[in-house]
Amino acid sequence: MKVIIADQINEKGIKELEDVADVVVNTSITQEELIKEIKDFDAIIVRSRTKVTRAVIEAAEKLKIIARAGVGVDNVDMAAATEKGIMVVNAPESTSITVAEHTMGLIMALIRKISIADKSVKEGRWEKSKFMGIELNGKTLGIIGLGRIGTQVSIRAKAFGMEILVYDPYVTEEAGAEIGVRVVDLEYLLKNSDVMTIHVPLTPETKHLISKKEFEMMKENAFIVNCARGGIINEDDLYEALKNNIIGGAGLDVFETEPPKDSPLLTLDNIVVTPHIAASTKEAQRDAAIIVANEVKKVFMGEAPKNVLNMPVLDPETFHAIKPYLKLSEKLANFLIQAAKGNITEVNITYCGELADFPRVDVISRTILKETLNSILTEPVNMINAPTIAKNRGIVITESKRSEAEGYKSLIKIEIKSDEGELSIEGNATREPRIVRIDKYWVNVKPEGTMVIARYKDIPGSIGTIGTKLGEHGINIAKMQVGRQAPSEEAVMVLTVDQKVPVDVIDEIRALEHVYDAVYVQL
């Protein structure tokens, strides 16, 4: 076996591979050279410099695995790798401790006023009384998002003598109790925490999760830290909260715009900022190299790697058979997770018609779980670990098969159950991915673009009022599909629109007479 290491990684990762493979290190290789030489290699390891493009992948004749010694894989053409049956792996766990430690560092800098005290002394002042701090011992830490990093933060905070509150819709009270934290709702966490730290992904649901209303719920001397993603905190509202002493202070490693040029936050003394370096340590880079080296070794030894980001390797015949339904399942899961409400408790998948006899439909199920969980969790979920993560989160997964497909050759049905109700969707991929049913209503919708889904009473004027409301906000309707069972009863309407739909517009549609509910989906 032969491996090319195209970017600089820690020497320990290279040594791990030398026992099982012929290792070539070329950290200055160009795209043109890589395209020419990749045909000779079974594996490639990169960081961020080297781009593993479609052209590189198509030139590969023996490539089995692409390994990214880090977390993000923006420099790898995932679609091209999947099409060719090449696994893509990364090292998500490599930064968990590093980011957790940086989080604690920002917390300490805030509560002990280390940054402004340092500046004061260097400027020739000795202002001891000005920098009175507080202890962490006996205080309450609120963790928003209990993935790998949030869990590591909780371990370190407990060592400081802190009580831990957690808000994570996908962690049960029982699971929290097992690691010594108390799972609560967001409002309780905000009102009762002395320090808060954020460890969730940036999604439409978490965009500006912490804004004016949330700051006003916090204690007057509370601190908030964000080492996750910029945009989760509304920076304009944070500035007002800090400037007017509504909260005690903030620590940011991430910003909505990076670098945060001309941000008014940088003029304040009660904020500590760093340039998105929470994951930047020598140890994290060492661990990333070792992790991906071991992933490559597993593949060479015929074992399953842990951190696969795309589908497992399939034989060409099987891949050709299920490929249309992999794309469909991604679309259905993304639609459903955006349209569903509440905390997910069950995911039920049914394969209907000819699809029930397809080989390896488990790959489709894992794709559905991966897409569903990646939308709500910070930790990367892949087709290998999706069932385990779902189980650990208390989500029940069922898979069934049915010979009847109700007029179609094949259908996939996905049903999500939550603490706020149920929602199901069915799709077909005979020619192209189509949504054919939402709950009990038959439709025929191409799952792409921006969509508004409304439930309403099917009486004259209902459709017009919804369209008028969108028009009032300059939102143009491109396509419309209506599903109903009987006149004058409940119906569902799917509108494909040309513009993004703000949350307040959706709220206005929900408030219309004869409209029962409305949601916004972006595919």
Automatic annotation (TrEMBL):
Where does this protein act, in terms of pathway?
Amino-acid biosynthesis; L-serine biosynthesis; L-serine from 3-phospho-D-glycerate: step 1/3
Task: Quote the EC number.
Answer: 1.1.1.95
This entry's Gene Ontology molecular function terms read: NAD binding; phosphoglycerate dehydrogenase activity
Q: Check the UniProt entry and state the signal peptide residues, or none.
A: none
* A Pfam family matched in the record: PGDH_inter
Reactions performed catalytically:
(2R)-3-phosphoglycerate + NAD(+) = 3-phosphooxypyruvate + NADH + H(+)
Q: Name one GO biological process term.
A: L-serine biosynthetic process
Q: Which PROSITE patterns match?
A: ACT, D_2_HYDROXYACID_DH_1, D_2_HYDROXYACID_DH_3
Identify which top EC class this enzyme belongs to. Answer: oxidoreductase
Q: Where is the ACT domain?
A: 451-523
Keyword line: Amino-acid biosynthesis, NAD, Oxidoreductase, Serine biosynthesis
**CDD domains, A to Z:** ACT_3PGDH-xct (cd04902), PGDH_4 (cd12173)
Regarding protein family, the annotation reads: Belongs to the D-isomer specific 2-hydroxyacid dehydrogenase family.
**Protein name, please?**
D-3-phosphoglycerate dehydrogenase
Q: Which organism is it from?
A: Methanobacterium bryantii
